[in-house]
UniProtKB/TrEMBL annotation:
GO MF annotation: an example: ABC-type transporter activity
Domain of life: Bacteria
Compartment(s) where it occurs, according to its Swiss-Prot or TrEMBL record: Cell membrane
Domain ABC transporter span(s) in chain numbering: 352-565
Membrane topology: Multi-pass membrane protein
SMART domains the UniProt entry points to: AAA
Residue spans crossing the bilayer: 21-46, 66-89, 151-171, 177-198, 254-279, 291-308
Positions in coiled-coil regions: 452-479
Protein name per the record: ABC-type multidrug transport system fused ATPase/permease subunit
InterPro entries assigned: AAA+_ATPase, ABC1_TM_dom, ABC1_TM_sf, ABC_transporter-like_ATP-bd, P-loop_NTPase, Type_1_exporter
Pfam family, one: ABC_membrane
The ABC transmembrane type-1 domain, residue ranges: 24-277
Keywords, ordered alphabetically: ATP-binding, Coiled coil, Membrane, Nucleotide-binding, Transmembrane, Transmembrane helix
Length: 567
């Protein structure tokens, strides 16, 4: 129920913010419907002109002077004008509805991406990234159809159906009653069919999402698949999932196409009943049904076919759109970062301390830390040492507030971790680690977030300094491409760019995982000297399996029994 409210709240906010566009769209649709209704009436009037027949039933024409003109030339000119105006207003209406759909999808995908950037890392650790890719393609398309076809076009079609039924009833009340009853019966029948379709649609959408996640995972692990010759195994796994989706797809198509087939059947049934009624009037009641009236009724009923096809199919659009809305609103409900105030505080001369901090990953009950107490003083270099799996990376992520402790407190100066937003903390801390990859098209985009000329000069100078001992073929320029998340770079190039990115940000705290990893000997010496120099006015924490040689380390913490102790 809450998510249902959320859907309508999103729609209401959008309509409120686009009142003019929505109003013009509805007016153009109304005018377009009126001209649509005039065309079959005009054809009936032509029938009167051509065969010199008059109909007492068509008193409606008396109020339409241009159709009731005694001059065929004037009538024809006005009829052509109606056709042209119908074309113009149909184009305007279709275009505006499409713009509404595009605009709503744009707003929603921007909100979605903004929120996904803020979602807690622990959520992604549990669910994976690939699971969310479908939200940006299939789900947004279904929601766009929900807005355009399910709301605006359906509303206009409903108004047109009411106009058509009113016109038919004006010509003959009995035919109007027959048409109304048949439309109601069609809606009741399709309502039952759509219940079955909804269940199948949910299953089909979930299987598609799962298949996309499977493909995304395997493509990211392509090197392992190739190295261990797992082609056949993964093909079989994919084929199994694909078969399940195929079987569900067959069920979906069986029910969906039943709906598509029922719609014209009901329309033609309306024509059959109209023919029966005309015949019944003639043979039983001894009355002759006017030819012009009959022709207009047939044309009006035939006009129902495309409109009914859209209105009775709209339930599929509603179902798929509702599923997609539910999935997106589910993402919006996930725990997000930066919900706390983000004051600008300076941690340059403040200690970072852990007080009885315990932590375990959501997917495990095993504690990584059990009442950890550790303090990092401002200034100088602190080393945290331990083997693989001892919690060094977890400690780094806790300092950055990527993760939060399950108990205990982390203090940043006088502030507790639950008093500061992630944004505030990260304004003061920068990280160098393979877990925080480079991204962007070029070297410049990977290391700098500003386009100012001053920053370009700083970046060029720093990059040249860090690369001074590299081979000429490995030296990078700011405009060079780095590939997807730095895939085109060597490990040494990646590490140099990570240092450049961190140093250009000029933050008071540096967290460095394996500081000399992947660097050639001369560059390692350069980095050591630079870190030693920086330690006079910055606070540096390095994480490694042993204390890196050559660094002026003031404090050392080593791992033991789910905690770190000072050596």
């Amino acid at each position: 129920m809450e998510r249902l409210k959320g859907k309508w709240l999103l729609l209401f906010k959008f309509i409120k913010g686009n009142r003019a566009l929505v109003t013009v769209t509805l007016i153009s649709g109304l005018v377009y419907n009126i001209f649509t209704l005039l065309i079959p009436i005009g054809i009936g009037r032509f029938y009167e002109f051509n065969f010199d027949i008059t109909s007492q039933r068509l008193k409606l024409l008396e109020s339409l002077s241009f159709l009731n003109s005694g001059s065929f030339t004037i009538f024809l000119l006005f009829f052509i004008l109606v056709v042209i105006l119908r074309f113009i207003f149909e184009y305007i209406n279709r275009y505006l509805i499409s713009i509404i759909g595009e605009s709503f999808a744009k707003n929603l995908r921007e909100q979605l991406f903004e929120h996904q950037l803020q979602i807690s890392t622990s959520i992604y650790d549990q669910k994976g990234i690939g699971k969310y890719l479908l939200r940006y393609s299939g789900d947004l398309k279904s929601i766009q159809d929900y807005i355009t076809k399910g709301l605006f076009k359906y509303t206009q079609d409903l108004i047109l159906i009411l106009f058509l039924l009113a016109t038919i009833s004006f010509i003959d009340i009995h035919v109007g009653a027959i048409s109304t009853v048949l439309i109601l019966l069609a809606n009741i029948l399709l309502g039952f069919i759509n219940k079955a379709l909804y269940t199948i649609s949910v299953s089909r959408r979930n299987q598609r999402s799962g298949l996309l996640t499977f493909v995304n995972t395997r493509l990211r692990a392509m090197a392992s698949i190739k190295a261990f010759n797992k082609y056949y195994i993964e093909q079989k796994r994919y084929a199994k999932r694909s078969e399940r989706l195929y079987q569900t797809g067959k069920k979906y198509q069986a029910v969906a196409n039943l709906i598509f087939s029922v719609i014209p059947a009901f329309t033609y049934l309306m024509i059959a009943l109209l023919m029966w009624y005309v015949y019944h009037v003639k043979t039983t009641m001894g009355d002759t049904f006017n030819q012009t009236s009959f022709l207009i009724l047939i044309l009006l009923v035939i006009s129902f076919l495309p409109i009914l096809r859209r209105t009775l199919r709209v339930s599929i659009v509603w179902k798929l759109g509702s599923i997609s809305f539910e999935k997106l609103l589910n993402i919006f409900s996930f725990e997000a970062e930066n919900t706390l105030p983000s004051p600008k505080i300076d941690l340059a001369d403040k200690a970072i301390s852990f007080n009885d901090v315990s932590f375990n990953y959501p997917s495990s009950n095993n504690l990584v830390f059990d009442k950890l107490n550790i303090s990092f003083s401002p200034g100088g270099i602190t080393a945290v040492i331990g083997g693989a799996g001892t919690g060094k990376t977890t400690l780094l992520n806790l300092i950055l507030k990527v993760y939060q402790p399950v108990s205990g407190e982390i203090h940043y100066g006088t502030h507790r971790h639950n008093e500061l937003s992630e944004k505030t903390i990260r304004r003061n801390i920068v990280v160098i680690s393979d877990d925080f990859p480079l991204y962007g098209k070029s070297v410049y985009e990977a290391i700098v977030y500003s386009r100012k000329e001053k920053m370009v000069k700083r970046a060029t100078k720093l990059l040249n300094e860090l690369q001074q001992f590299e081979d000429a073929k490995n030296k990078l320029q700011l405009q060079d491409s780095i590939g997807d998340l730095g895939k085109s770079l060597t490990s040494g190039q990646k590490r140099i760019l990570m240092y450049a990115r961190a140093l250009l940000s000029n933050k008071p705290w540096l967290l460095i995982d394996e500081p000399l990893k992947g660097l050639k000997q001369e560059t390692s010496s350069l980095i050591r000297d630079k870190l030693n120099l920086l330690s006079t006015n910055k606070s540096i924490i390095v994480f490694d399996s042993e204390v890196p040689g050559g660094l002026l380390v003031g404090q050392v913490y080593s791992q033991k029994d789910n905690t770190f102790t000072k050596k």
